[in-house]
Amino acid sequence: MDADRDRHAASARSGAAPDRPTEDRERPTEDRERLAGDHERLAEEVDADAGARGALYALVARTFTEPGDDLYEALAAGEVTGEFEALLDRTSLDVAPPDATVDDDHETLSARFNDLFVVGYSEVIDRTDGTVDHQGPPVSLYESAYRPEVSWNDVNLDLARAYEHFGVQVDQDQRRNHDHIRLQLEFMGYLCRREAAVDPDVAAARLDFHDRHLRVVTEGVADALAGEPGTGLYGELAAFLDRFTAADVDDLDARLSGGGSA
Q1: What is the predicted pLDDT for the residue at 174?
Q2: What is the pTM for the complete model shown?
Q3: Could you tell me the CA-to-CA distances from 197 to 48, 88, 98, 109, 252 in Å, in that order?
Protein backbone atom coordinates (compact mmCIF):
# COMPACT_ATOMS: atom_id res chain seq x y z
CA MET A 1 0.00 0.00 0.00
CA ASP A 2 2.81 2.43 0.86
CA ALA A 3 4.58 1.65 -2.44
CA ASP A 4 1.39 2.32 -4.39
CA ARG A 5 0.84 5.57 -2.50
CA ASP A 6 4.41 6.71 -3.24
CA ARG A 7 4.01 5.86 -6.95
CA HIS A 8 0.76 7.84 -7.21
CA ALA A 9 2.30 10.78 -5.40
CA ALA A 10 5.26 10.81 -7.79
CA SER A 11 2.90 10.68 -10.75
CA ALA A 12 0.94 13.63 -9.40
CA ARG A 13 4.13 15.69 -8.92
CA SER A 14 5.32 14.93 -12.46
CA GLY A 15 1.95 15.71 -14.03
CA ALA A 16 1.45 12.13 -15.24
CA ALA A 17 -1.87 10.39 -14.70
CA PRO A 18 -1.77 7.53 -12.21
CA ASP A 19 -2.08 4.01 -13.55
CA ARG A 20 -5.67 2.80 -14.05
CA PRO A 21 -6.89 -0.76 -13.67
CA THR A 22 -6.39 -2.85 -16.76
CA GLU A 23 -10.16 -3.14 -17.43
CA ASP A 24 -10.50 0.68 -17.46
CA ARG A 25 -7.69 1.05 -20.01
CA GLU A 26 -9.25 -1.54 -22.30
CA ARG A 27 -12.82 -0.20 -22.19
CA PRO A 28 -12.33 2.54 -24.84
CA THR A 29 -11.07 -0.07 -27.31
CA GLU A 30 -14.07 -2.26 -26.56
CA ASP A 31 -16.39 0.71 -27.05
CA ARG A 32 -14.80 1.55 -30.39
CA GLU A 33 -15.17 -2.02 -31.57
CA ARG A 34 -18.79 -2.11 -30.43
CA LEU A 35 -19.56 1.20 -32.17
CA ALA A 36 -17.84 0.03 -35.33
CA GLY A 37 -20.00 -3.07 -35.29
CA ASP A 38 -23.13 -0.95 -34.77
CA HIS A 39 -22.16 1.25 -37.74
CA GLU A 40 -21.61 -1.80 -39.95
CA ARG A 41 -25.00 -3.25 -38.99
CA LEU A 42 -26.65 0.14 -39.59
CA ALA A 43 -24.98 0.43 -43.00
CA GLU A 44 -26.34 -2.99 -43.91
CA GLU A 45 -29.86 -1.98 -42.83
CA VAL A 46 -29.87 1.34 -44.73
CA ASP A 47 -30.62 1.23 -48.46
CA ALA A 48 -27.77 3.35 -49.85
CA ASP A 49 -29.36 3.54 -53.29
CA ALA A 50 -32.63 5.02 -52.01
CA GLY A 51 -30.69 7.33 -49.72
CA ALA A 52 -28.62 8.65 -52.63
CA ARG A 53 -31.78 9.26 -54.65
CA GLY A 54 -33.18 11.22 -51.73
CA ALA A 55 -30.06 13.37 -51.66
CA LEU A 56 -30.36 13.92 -55.43
CA TYR A 57 -33.94 15.14 -55.11
CA ALA A 58 -32.90 17.49 -52.32
CA LEU A 59 -30.00 18.78 -54.43
CA VAL A 60 -32.23 19.51 -57.44
CA ALA A 61 -34.69 21.27 -55.13
CA ARG A 62 -31.85 23.42 -53.84
CA THR A 63 -30.84 24.45 -57.35
CA PHE A 64 -34.38 25.44 -58.37
CA THR A 65 -34.26 28.64 -56.37
CA GLU A 66 -32.77 32.06 -56.89
CA PRO A 67 -29.07 31.49 -56.20
CA GLY A 68 -27.72 32.99 -53.01
CA ASP A 69 -24.02 33.58 -52.48
CA ASP A 70 -23.24 30.08 -51.21
CA LEU A 71 -25.15 28.32 -53.97
CA TYR A 72 -23.65 30.50 -56.68
CA GLU A 73 -20.11 29.86 -55.46
CA ALA A 74 -20.75 26.10 -55.37
CA LEU A 75 -22.16 26.18 -58.89
CA ALA A 76 -19.34 28.30 -60.32
CA ALA A 77 -16.68 26.12 -58.69
CA GLY A 78 -18.15 22.92 -60.13
CA GLU A 79 -18.97 21.56 -56.69
CA VAL A 80 -22.66 21.00 -57.49
CA THR A 81 -21.76 19.10 -60.66
CA GLY A 82 -19.44 16.93 -58.56
CA GLU A 83 -22.25 16.26 -56.07
CA PHE A 84 -24.56 15.11 -58.85
CA GLU A 85 -21.91 12.78 -60.22
CA ALA A 86 -21.03 11.28 -56.83
CA LEU A 87 -24.65 10.69 -55.84
CA LEU A 88 -25.61 9.15 -59.16
CA ASP A 89 -22.68 6.74 -58.82
CA ARG A 90 -24.30 5.45 -55.63
CA THR A 91 -27.54 4.57 -57.40
CA SER A 92 -28.36 1.77 -59.83
CA LEU A 93 -29.82 4.24 -62.34
CA ASP A 94 -28.14 4.79 -65.70
CA VAL A 95 -28.67 8.54 -65.90
CA ALA A 96 -26.21 11.12 -67.18
CA PRO A 97 -25.51 13.88 -64.63
CA PRO A 98 -26.16 17.51 -65.49
CA ASP A 99 -23.40 20.01 -66.12
CA ALA A 100 -24.32 22.40 -63.34
CA THR A 101 -21.20 24.56 -63.63
CA VAL A 102 -22.01 28.14 -64.62
CA ASP A 103 -20.09 30.76 -66.56
CA ASP A 104 -22.61 33.51 -65.79
CA ASP A 105 -21.68 36.00 -63.11
CA HIS A 106 -23.89 36.01 -60.03
CA GLU A 107 -26.06 38.92 -61.14
CA THR A 108 -26.69 37.41 -64.57
CA LEU A 109 -27.65 34.01 -63.15
CA SER A 110 -30.08 35.62 -60.70
CA ALA A 111 -31.61 37.66 -63.53
CA ARG A 112 -31.95 34.50 -65.62
CA PHE A 113 -33.81 32.74 -62.80
CA ASN A 114 -36.17 35.67 -62.28
CA ASP A 115 -36.82 36.17 -66.00
CA LEU A 116 -37.75 32.52 -66.43
CA PHE A 117 -39.64 31.70 -63.26
CA VAL A 118 -40.66 34.83 -61.36
CA VAL A 119 -41.27 37.96 -63.41
CA GLY A 120 -44.41 38.17 -65.54
CA TYR A 121 -45.44 40.99 -67.81
CA SER A 122 -48.44 43.10 -68.76
CA GLU A 123 -49.40 44.12 -72.28
CA VAL A 124 -52.05 46.61 -73.36
CA ILE A 125 -54.12 44.80 -75.98
CA ASP A 126 -56.80 47.45 -76.52
CA ARG A 127 -55.79 51.07 -76.10
CA THR A 128 -59.36 52.28 -76.65
CA ASP A 129 -60.62 50.83 -73.39
CA GLY A 130 -57.33 50.13 -71.60
CA THR A 131 -57.68 46.34 -71.64
CA VAL A 132 -54.50 44.77 -70.28
CA ASP A 133 -53.34 41.20 -70.70
CA HIS A 134 -51.51 40.02 -67.59
CA GLN A 135 -49.14 37.11 -68.11
CA GLY A 136 -47.20 35.13 -65.58
CA PRO A 137 -43.52 34.22 -65.98
CA PRO A 138 -42.55 32.23 -69.10
CA VAL A 139 -42.13 29.00 -67.12
CA SER A 140 -44.35 28.11 -64.19
CA LEU A 141 -42.89 26.07 -61.34
CA TYR A 142 -46.40 25.07 -60.19
CA GLU A 143 -47.96 21.76 -61.17
CA SER A 144 -51.45 23.24 -61.56
CA ALA A 145 -50.21 25.22 -64.58
CA TYR A 146 -49.78 21.91 -66.40
CA ARG A 147 -53.11 20.41 -65.30
CA PRO A 148 -55.80 22.34 -67.19
CA GLU A 149 -58.25 19.46 -66.73
CA VAL A 150 -58.01 19.62 -62.91
CA SER A 151 -58.85 22.55 -60.68
CA TRP A 152 -56.12 24.35 -58.76
CA ASN A 153 -57.92 23.49 -55.53
CA ASP A 154 -58.06 19.75 -56.27
CA VAL A 155 -54.34 19.59 -57.12
CA ASN A 156 -53.26 21.38 -53.96
CA LEU A 157 -55.73 19.58 -51.71
CA ASP A 158 -54.46 16.21 -52.90
CA LEU A 159 -50.88 17.29 -52.24
CA ALA A 160 -51.76 18.62 -48.80
CA ARG A 161 -53.26 15.25 -47.91
CA ALA A 162 -50.17 13.42 -49.15
CA TYR A 163 -47.86 15.65 -47.11
CA GLU A 164 -50.06 15.29 -44.01
CA HIS A 165 -50.24 11.50 -44.38
CA PHE A 166 -46.47 11.29 -43.97
CA GLY A 167 -46.34 13.84 -41.16
CA VAL A 168 -44.86 16.79 -43.03
CA GLN A 169 -46.26 20.21 -43.82
CA VAL A 170 -45.43 23.25 -45.89
CA ASP A 171 -43.35 25.91 -44.15
CA GLN A 172 -45.80 28.73 -43.53
CA ASP A 173 -42.99 31.30 -43.73
CA GLN A 174 -42.50 30.43 -47.41
CA ARG A 175 -45.11 31.85 -49.76
CA ARG A 176 -45.44 28.77 -51.94
CA ASN A 177 -48.48 26.66 -52.77
CA HIS A 178 -48.33 22.93 -52.22
CA ASP A 179 -47.87 22.24 -55.93
CA HIS A 180 -44.58 24.15 -56.28
CA ILE A 181 -41.91 21.92 -57.81
CA ARG A 182 -39.42 22.59 -55.06
CA LEU A 183 -41.83 21.42 -52.36
CA GLN A 184 -42.59 18.28 -54.34
CA LEU A 185 -38.89 17.55 -54.83
CA GLU A 186 -38.22 18.01 -51.12
CA PHE A 187 -41.11 15.69 -50.30
CA MET A 188 -39.84 13.03 -52.71
CA GLY A 189 -36.40 13.35 -51.14
CA TYR A 190 -37.97 12.75 -47.74
CA LEU A 191 -39.81 9.67 -49.02
CA CYS A 192 -36.56 8.28 -50.42
CA ARG A 193 -34.77 8.75 -47.11
CA ARG A 194 -37.68 7.13 -45.30
CA GLU A 195 -37.56 4.21 -47.70
CA ALA A 196 -33.82 3.89 -47.15
CA ALA A 197 -33.81 3.85 -43.37
CA VAL A 198 -37.27 3.09 -42.02
CA ASP A 199 -39.80 1.54 -44.36
CA PRO A 200 -38.98 -0.12 -47.72
CA ASP A 201 -42.71 -0.25 -48.48
CA VAL A 202 -42.61 3.52 -49.05
CA ALA A 203 -41.41 2.66 -52.57
CA ALA A 204 -45.06 2.12 -53.56
CA ALA A 205 -45.98 5.56 -52.23
CA ARG A 206 -43.10 7.07 -54.19
CA LEU A 207 -44.35 5.55 -57.43
CA ASP A 208 -47.87 6.80 -56.74
CA PHE A 209 -46.58 10.32 -56.01
CA HIS A 210 -44.64 10.30 -59.26
CA ASP A 211 -47.71 9.27 -61.23
CA ARG A 212 -50.10 11.69 -59.56
CA HIS A 213 -47.87 14.75 -59.26
CA LEU A 214 -44.10 14.90 -59.61
CA ARG A 215 -43.78 13.55 -63.15
CA VAL A 216 -46.51 15.95 -64.26
CA VAL A 217 -44.66 19.03 -63.07
CA THR A 218 -41.18 17.84 -64.07
CA GLU A 219 -42.30 17.04 -67.61
CA GLY A 220 -44.16 20.34 -67.80
CA VAL A 221 -41.22 22.43 -66.65
CA ALA A 222 -38.78 20.59 -68.93
CA ASP A 223 -41.04 21.07 -71.97
CA ALA A 224 -41.63 24.74 -71.17
CA LEU A 225 -37.92 25.43 -70.76
CA ALA A 226 -37.12 23.59 -73.97
CA GLY A 227 -39.24 26.18 -75.78
CA GLU A 228 -37.48 29.18 -74.23
CA PRO A 229 -34.23 30.77 -75.41
CA GLY A 230 -31.29 31.37 -73.09
CA THR A 231 -32.28 28.98 -70.31
CA GLY A 232 -28.65 28.12 -69.44
CA LEU A 233 -28.29 26.25 -66.17
CA TYR A 234 -32.03 25.86 -65.67
CA GLY A 235 -32.60 24.18 -69.01
CA GLU A 236 -29.80 21.74 -68.13
CA LEU A 237 -31.28 21.02 -64.68
CA ALA A 238 -34.81 20.55 -66.00
CA ALA A 239 -33.64 18.12 -68.69
CA PHE A 240 -31.72 16.14 -66.06
CA LEU A 241 -34.70 16.11 -63.69
CA ASP A 242 -36.96 14.85 -66.47
CA ARG A 243 -34.71 11.88 -67.29
CA PHE A 244 -33.90 11.20 -63.61
CA THR A 245 -37.56 11.04 -62.54
CA ALA A 246 -38.41 8.92 -65.60
CA ALA A 247 -35.64 6.46 -64.70
CA ASP A 248 -36.76 6.40 -61.06
CA VAL A 249 -40.33 5.59 -62.15
CA ASP A 250 -39.18 2.79 -64.47
CA ASP A 251 -37.02 1.28 -61.73
CA LEU A 252 -39.77 1.49 -59.10
CA ASP A 253 -42.31 -0.02 -61.47
CA ALA A 254 -39.98 -2.91 -62.33
CA ARG A 255 -39.19 -3.60 -58.67
CA LEU A 256 -42.80 -3.43 -57.49
CA SER A 257 -44.05 -5.60 -60.33
CA GLY A 258 -41.41 -8.20 -59.50
CA GLY A 259 -39.33 -7.67 -62.58
CA GLY A 260 -36.48 -5.62 -61.13
CA SER A 261 -33.79 -5.86 -58.49
CA ALA A 262 -34.66 -5.08 -54.88
Answers
A1: 65
A2: 0.77
A3: 9, 19, 27, 37, 17
